[in-house]
Design goal:
Blueprint (H helix, E strand, L loop, with lengths): L6 E3 L13 H11 L15 H10 L1 H18 L4 E7 L4 E6 L1 H8 L11 H4 L3 H8 L2 E5 L11 E9 L5 E10 L7 H18 L5 E7 L11 E5 L5 E4 L1 H7 L10 H5 L3 H9 L5 E4 L5 E9 L19 H4 L4 H13 L6 E4 L6 H10 L8 E5 L8 H6 L17 H4 L4 E5 L6 H13 L1 E2 L8 E2 L3 E6 L3 H6 L5 H7 L2 E4 L9 H16 L3 E2 L1 H9 L5 H15 L5 E2 L22 H11 L4 H8 L3 H8 L4
Parallel strand pairs: 12-17, 12-18, 13-14, 14-17, 19-20
Antiparallel strand pairs: 1-4, 2-3, 2-6, 4-5, 5-6, 7-8, 7-11, 8-9, 10-11, 15-16
Helix pairs in contact: 3-7, 19-21, 20-22, 22-23
Length: about 625
């Protein structure tokens, strides 16, 4: 067989390996070393359901953070005769989903949950070879060692834990006739997202830094992530951080002062002063922009602020002039600190978590933890252990010293259960018992533990209709609705101008001062905003980035799906006439100028206004 090469890449912004390094030849040699022959009929053992369930439990954190990313990845490759798979560190497929037509073909070679795809069993393939080489790999068609697998094209990327150990593999596999060169890049970015999520939730105490030499890369996959202990010893660094810092593998002896030129005490003081951005210098002299966060308490010192607490809004920040919201905030302010549960209802994107954060910030519990749980984002198989935690030895593969569930993490502070309508019925009963008894019993525990927290829940569902349908417990409903408040959607609010200014002010640190033209504001007031504030903020963020040098956001800077070229705007509804008239007035009757500002033709203006100027 002629020598071929495995297409390779790396994560964290580091240079890709050269494509001619003999990786495929090494993989084929390993396959032969396992005693495999090209024409072998593979043996396809599938784990029993209870054993697979145990392996999933052993990889709880990986699953929790990988599944939402996998779903987003699949949306990008849907209808391409492909599938997405997640494996553990040994090549066992934990989860897979994809196009129905391709899943049937994949099942013929046991490319499904419960099957083992390391090289020892399957020969050269992207999952097994990525495990063996510890790097991203594409194996296409006849590059597979076993002929049975040569109808596939596979792109796999290792997922590394914060400790640097290999945690699993993210894979996209499809029909070899549909090969796309960009697939590996998509998988690589998704794997980096999973790694960053794992990193973000791995450390309960110490310093957590996000950094890059360019501020606009903070919050992107290019950012470096590092964690230091309270006394400044490096605990972990993601791939981008290792590349920027020039670290060869994990270097636990490295210190905060040596790497960033600042002592732990000085950094803690900067965190307490609520400095949003720090300008620090790496050991090589490179200046980097840093967002620093302190988690936990310093030994022998007074408790430090809870992670992110200093950045939480106050209720007064949310009072921007809308009468409905003003009345809502008045009600909330009267029950804060009185052990009355609050249920926030409203459409998706109306700011329910922001309101919950403000309630915590203005409560007597502000110095303790604000713990948010999205009940819709955690897989049903994991939500029980995430909420209630487990003790050391509760099951094979459990974390040493166990895991404090979200309920115990919120002890003394505030627990925010978002999308509570998506909580499985069996868990609703356990939560009800916690609220009644004020006790939590971790999985595998020998007895209950006392717990005390303020409860805020949120939902965009009609819980009373769910009760009637038998999908939500009525007794739990009456436990969580001490005060029910409804956040109005953007289309019902009268303070849109103030909100837009606040969003632009927040974005100004990234792209400078920006303002919205009268024409755009008129369009905003007439748009239905199905995505509410989440949609508005995303639109403004993009518009800020592409606005002209004068800093004014005009209709031309809005996305195409907001305002198509052949119409004034999909947002104008029945009052589009007024928006066009306002634009013409703003340009002192100059129809050509108004047309340019609105991104439409002069004829469209004449037609919509019903007259000629």
């Amino acid at each position: 067989m002629p020598e071929r090469t495995v297409a390779t890449t790396t994560q964290g912004g580091m240079p890709a390996d050269p494509p001619s390094d003999g990786g495929l030849d090494r993989a084929h040699q390993r396959s032969r070393g396992y005693g495999l022959l090209e024409y072998d009929t593979p043996h396809y053992p599938i784990l029993a359901a209870d054993v697979l369930r145990l392996r999933r439990e052993q990889n709880r954190a990986l699953q929790t953070h990988a599944l939402p990313v996998m779903e987003a990845l699949y949306q990008q490759i849907a209808n391409t005769h492909s599938m997405v798979a997640l494996t553990d560190a040994k090549g066992l497929i934990l989860h897979s989903f994809g196009d129905d037509d391709f899943l049937k073909k994949a099942a013929r070679v046991a490319l499904r949950a419960g099957s083992d795809w390391n090289e020892e069993h399957q020969g050269t393939n992207a999952i097994g070879t990525a495990l063996a080489e510890r790097r991203a790999v594409t194996v296409h068609g006849t590059q597979h060692f076993l002929r049975a697998n040569q109808f596939l094209t596979c792109s796999s990327v290792p997922i590394f834990e914060p400790s640097g150990q290999l945690g699993g593999i993210l894979d996209v596999t499809g029909d070899q006739r549909g090969y796309h060169a960009h697939t590996l890049a998509l998988v690589r970015m998704s794997a980096q997202m999973i790694e960053n999520h794992l990193f973000d939730h791995a450390f309960g105490h110490g310093f957590y830094l996000r950094f890059h030499s360019r501020r606009e890369f903070i919050g992107t996959l290019m950012e470096g992530l590092v964690a230091f202990s309270g006394d400044g010893i490096l605990l972990a660094a993601n791939g981008s951080a290792r590349f920027q810092l020039g670290l060869d593998g994990m270097a636990h002896e490295r210190t905060l002062a040596a790497l960033f030129g600042i002592a732990p005490g000085a950094l803690l003081e900067r965190c307490r002063l609520q400095s949003a951005w720090l300008e620090l210098h790496l050991h090589g002299g490179v200046q980097v922009c840093v967002q620093a966060q302190w988690r936990g308490a310093t030994p022998g010192a007074a408790p430090a602020p809870t992670p992110g607490t200093s950045a939480l809004p106050h209720l007064r920040y949310l009072n921007t002039g809308d009468a409905q919201v003003g009345r809502l905030l008045d009600k909330v302010a009267k029950v804060i600190g009185r052990d009355i549960p609050i249920l926030i209802t409203g459409e998706t994107g109306t700011g329910k978590e922001l309101l919950a954060q403000a309630i915590h910030r203005d409560s007597p519990r502000a110095g303790a933890s604000f713990v948010a749980v999205n009940c819709a984002a955690i897989p049903e198989t994991l939500i029980e252990s995430e909420l209630f935690g487990y003790v050391d030895g509760a099951f094979s593969g459990a974390r040493r010293k166990g895991y404090r569930g979200k309920l115990m993490q919120a002890n003394g502070g505030t627990l925010f259960l978002d999308e509570i309508g998506d909580m499985p019925l069996p868990l609703q009963m356990r939560l009800l018992r916690v609220l009644q008894e004020r006790e939590v019993e971790p999985l595998g525990g020998s007895g209950p533990l006392a717990v005390d927290f303020s409860l805020i829940c949120a939902t965009n569902r009609d819980l009373q209709a769910m009760i009637a349908a038998g999908r939500f417990r009525e007794d739990l409903y009456y436990r969580i609705n001490g005060l029910v408040v409804r956040l109005p959607p953007v289309r019902e609010r009268s303070d849109l101008d103030v909100i837009v200014r606040k969003i632009l002010q927040a974005e100004s640190r990234h792209c400078g001062a920006r303002e919205v033209s009268p024409e755009v504001m008129a369009l905003f007031h007439r748009y239905a905003w199905p995505g509410n504030f989440r949609q508005l903020a995303a639109l403004l963020r993009t518009a800020c980035a592409i606005a002209d040098d004068d800093g004014v956001i005009r209709p031309a800077h809005l996305p195409d799906d907001f305002m198509p070229d052949d119409a004034p705007s999909v947002a104008l509804s029945r009052q589009e006439h007024d928006a066009i008239a306002a634009a013409v007035t703003a340009h002192r009757g100059n129809v050509s100028a108004a047309a340019r500002a609105l991104g439409i033709s002069r004829n469209t203006i004449y037609r919509k206004l019903g007259s000629k100027h």
